[in-house]
Design a protein that fits this description.
Blueprint lengths: L6 E3 L8 E3 L18 H5 L18 E6 L2 E7 L6 H7 L10 E9 L2 E8 L9 H13 L6 E7 L2 E7 L7 E6 L2 E9 L2 E7 L3 E6 L8 H9 L9 E9 L2 E8 L3 E3 L3 H15 L5 E5 L2 E7 L5 E5 L2 E2 L1
Length: 307
């Protein structure tokens, strides 16, 4: 352990005890939850070179997390941020940037609310990799108990399961997938429309590594076909049990992963290319297992980590 030490600060009530240890930085700054603070107020809690977690009971909690390379700023709610402040928090000048901001607000001991904004400040319906980060954040901070609980999202109530022990085995329902099986020609490729509560278009390619994602993605995202813009996925089938994906995320750009995109590609590959479910989906940030549960929801099992 070297010179590591546990530091305890005692306040006026047991609920205000906070602790810190190397890699976990303590703050004793409290906030009025009814006020909307600017990004600098939040950023003051994040020392990019040292903070992996900020824990406290009656304080705003801020942490940087990632799921398969999708990077997020996660904040305990209720909390208010406008688009410009979200853009500032996600800036590449701040610790390599983030793909979005998650606000996690407790409802009761088995239920939390999740809100998600893309890096460009636009609010999104859903974020699959963010959902796993929300699940870990909620358990680690005592907002819910380990086991099965509910995360309320813009697309409905979704189940999350985590034992609070292994951060690589966080399981979440991502959504019911709707597919338009007739392809549409766009930019000389055949794309399928897939709805996971948020919009996706998916095409199959022979070699995803050689596909010009950063050229095609920004063009396809804003096509008139998609009034709310769209996520764009490119998929290579490696075997019946494994597919490989790259993604251009709406409002972000090419990212290391996209949870809803992984689910969209897994379900579409099963429908069109007859791949298996469960299936392993490989992305630049790693891989995860995707399958269909008995309620008709696609689930994803994968990691959520602190940065």
């Amino acid at each position: 352990m070297g010179n590591q030490a546990i530091i305890l600060y005692y306040f006026t009530s047991i609920n205000q005890i906070a602790y810190a240890w190397q890699g976990i930085v303590l703050t004793n700054q409290t906030f009025d939850e009814e006020l909307a603070f600017d990004a600098d107020s939040i950023q003051s809690l994040i020392d990019d070179s040292r903070v992996s977690r900020v824990y406290s009971s009656n304080m705003t909690q801020v942490v940087r997390m990632q799921g398969l390379g999708n990077r997020f700023v996660v904040i305990r709610g209720p909390f208010k941020l406008d688009a410009n402040k979200i853009i500032n928090l996600c800036s590449s000048e701040v610790d390599g940037g983030a793909d979005g901001v998650l606000i996690v607000t407790p409802i009761n001991s088995f239920h939390v609310n999740m809100q998600y904004w893309n890096a460009d400040g636009s609010e999104a319906e859903m974020c699959g990799n963010g959902l796993r980060c929300v699940a870990r954040f909620a358990v680690d901070n005592g907002l819910v108990k380990p086991g099965e609980f509910i995360v309320k999202t813009k697309v409905g109530n979704l189940k999350a399961i985590w034992d609070g022990i292994d951060p690589n085995t966080i399981e979440v329902q991502v959504g019911r997938v709707k597919i338009v099986t007739a392809p549409t020609a766009l930019e000389n490729l055949q794309f399928y429309y897939v709805d996971v509560g948020n919009p996706h278009i998916v095409t199959f390619v022979d070699n995803v590594d050689k596909t010009p994602v950063t050229t095609l993605g920004p063009v396809l995202e804003v096509k008139p076909n998609f009034p709310n813009r769209t996520n764009v996925e490119f998929v290579e089938v490696l075997s019946l049990g494994k597919i490989k994906m790259r993604v251009w995320e709406r409002g972000v750009g090419e990212t290391q992963a996209c949870g809803t995109g992984m689910v969209a590609c897994a379900r579409l590959s099963h429908e069109i290319m007859k791949t298996e479910l469960p299936v392993i989906v490989q992305v630049p940030g790693g891989e995860a297992k995707v399958w269909l549960d008995n309620q008709g929801y696609c689930r994803i099992l994968g990691p959520a980590e602190y940065l």
